[in-house]
Amino acid sequence: MAYLLLFFSAFGAATLLPLQSEAVLLGLLVQTQHSAYLLLVVATIGNVLGSCVNWYLGLKIEQFKDKKWFPVSEKNMLKAEKIYQKYGFWSLLLSWTPIIGDPITLIAGLMKENFWRFLLIVTIAKGGRYAFIYLVYIGLF
Question: Model-level pTM greater than 0.85?
């Protein structure tokens, strides 16, 4: 059950929903009854899959961006698009960051970024963030 909770919090946090998965991960790490490695894998998979939803929405954004319910502001979209245009697919390394990370993954879809390259870079970025959190937790940073 704990792994499922972590998966869904990580998935939701990577979409444009205002959720946080780091607190759930740390709470489960503190309990020490779960495999740290498995927690990191589950969080990474959930977070990456959430980013894949953003990428897909980016492919279809022209149909939705003017809808009232659309969760990304024009300002954040333009900011993410400028970063993406300047740095290209390497900007996906910032997909783990608050505020701009989710819009960047959406913009990657809008810009028709190759899905497999997207998946590789986002997995590195998101997995790296969770690994860093774990290293901080165990006192290496």
Answer: yes
